[in-house]
Amino acid sequence: MEPGSSSDSLGKAERVKGGVTTRLGSVLPNPKIEPFVPRFDHNPNELRSWAKRTGFVSDYSGGTETSANEKNDSALFDLENGLDSGNGETSPKIEIDPVLGRTRPNRGIEIEPVGKNERDGTGKNENQRRRTRDETKFHERKVGLNASGSRNGNAHGIANGNGHRNEVPEVAPVAEPKKEDGVFEIDEKIDVAYGEELSQGGWQRLSGMNYGIRENPGFAPSVYYGLQHYLSLAGSLIFIPLIIVPAMGGTDKDTATVISTMLLVSGITTILHSYFGTRLPLVQGSSFVYLAPALVVMNAREYRNLTEHKFRHIMRELQGAIIVGSIFQSILGFSGLMSLLLRLINPIVVAPTVAAVGLAFFSYGFAQAGSCVEISIPQILLLLVFALVPLSIMLIWTYAFFLTAGGAYNYKGCSPDIPSSNILIDVCRKHAYTMKHCRTDVSNAWRAAAWVRIPYPFQWGIPIFHLRTSMIMIIVSLVTSVDSVGTYHSASLRVNSKPPTPGIVSRGIAMEGFCSILAGLWGSGTGSSTLTENVHTINITKVASRRAVEVGAVFLILFSFVGKVGALLASIPQALAASVLCFMWALIVALGLSTLQYSQTASFRNITIVGVSLFLGLSIPAYFQQYQPESRLILPSYFVAYAAASNGPIHTGSKQLDFALNALMSMNMVVTLLVAFVLDNTVPGSRQERGVYIWSRAEEIATDPSFLSDYALPRKVAKCFCWAKCLGV
């Protein structure tokens, strides 16, 4: 682009000894402004970024390619004194803030007063020499000086010694310099633009993290922070088996085995996702998204009266359904279809869908916790006050132990080991439910579990594949993918990084599908997914180190080999577990609604879509759940909502299809996703109003080393997948 205006070379800087400012005697106060002349001889295919379109020499990029001529032309550049104009005059380098679009100083050309120390022969004092040495290494990687002005086509320029013009863009000054005696004063220091800071990887946002995504705290701190990270997610990792295994007819030993299996699968899948997925420090585990369909399957009519091997039969049914749904999710990611689907998934879709996952279990939460209010209410209060799940569990568990040892749950003539159906005394039958849910010595998992037991694939038998359950899990895998998309975006901004590209999101979804296949083979009862609570955990711990998460995953695998660990966790009283789940489900609702911050929350369009989606997501399933009068006499009240699949109002003539459709329409998260997806993509609204997710572009991987380090696959793995451009490789 031809320059639209020109200016004379900046005058020689005269440093006043002992002063705090530098006076520039020949800065033109009234530069002549000429009309802007656009350039028409450019190739649009070469304009791949904002920097090249505007002619800005960006230092987002950790390094830029320069030709041999450009390197020769830039030989007169001095890191401290700026650009040599050829006649000994110097001028400071002007930079543009890449986000706010205003000027900022080059840290390597900062002007300091001359103190008592005399300059040496080179004209630099000791402080300046030390600063120059430190910043030379930094700017050699970050600043690609365009001495000839021919590479980026900048609008303005300063002549150098070779007669070329070192181009810099014209910008409006932030503040006019003070004029005294015909000379301008330049302040000694100018702050960098708010919200950003210089780092070795590029310009990044201030996040308040103690450790960044690529930082290695060391072995001992990594162990500490890694265990802390997983303990804060204990509600998701260990409490799902406490719900599903007893409902499936499993024993305390089965509960301990499923918990150990979940620990193993969570550790393996987290490491896989950390290396081959999005590479964000996100823990993979048993998601609550899979809990609702698991409850639907286990409450099917044919399983209600099954007594022999009921647990193993239902588990094998779940394994088959999870494997089929996970294969579909992997195909969705590896084929690149997820990149296309991302265009239709926005915060207005993600927010109500994730919130519906937590709201779906309101009938179970306090209905179970209320059996022991002396345990559940203190537990919930501690969680609300301190937000520390492991500490509150240990305190209340100890408190419940003292209540049990003190005889608070002892009733004359009643034994907690006798099932309520065998109790003939009315007073014991009335207290049997309380004893089962409140006592800490009810479970015999500790006595039955072995010290060493390694979970293995197909430990419950060969999976069973049915069309009806497979259809359910395929749709649930879509809900899981939408949940993960919101978590990827929120977590990436929180850990001081740019959002991933659509290809990287597809790669993460594909890896989640593969990890869920492993969960189906091992038989954990649910699929594996990115836990929504990861964002809350990162906010609390202030640790976003990928290495710490990987070290914690290794310890999780080691704990899964110790059978007594799973047995100890299986001994948690059910009332205590239900009270923790009340907090976890409420947290998921809050995290889901917090996604609305990326859209215009005051927009009537948006609040209408979210409100209608949540209301219909609760009301339509309630309509389907009323077609089951016989279930109310057999199942506990908190499981009645998940028995609609066998008695729903849809009748197509195919029992398999009827079961699948009735089950899907009775699940809150599925209906909410369907309503929100249709409304957000049909109701008119601008991109800014909808809060469309802004994902990074694929070419930024090659130009930004920090972006490459955050998301790129390991070098040897990337070579094997070089053909998969749709996966951000």
Summarize the SSE layout with pairings.
Blueprint: E1 13-15, E2 22-24, H1 50-54, H2 68-73, E3 77-78, E4 82-84, E5 90-91, E6 94-96, E7 103-105, H3 126-142, E8 156-159, E9 165-168, E10 178-180, E11 183-186, E12 196-199, E13 202-205, H4 219-231, H5 234-247, H6 252-276, E14 284-286, H7 291-298, H8 301-304, H9 310-334, H10 337-341, H11 347-359, H12 365-369, H13 373-386, H14 389-405, H15 426-438, H16 445-448, H17 467-494, H18 502-522, E15 528-530, H19 534-541, H20 546-560, H21 563-570, H22 574-594, H23 604-625, H24 631-634, H25 655-665, H26 668-680, H27 687-690, H28 700-703, H29 705-711, H30 715-720
Antiparallel strand pairs: 1-2, 2-11, 3-4, 4-5, 6-7, 8-9, 10-11, 12-13, 14-15
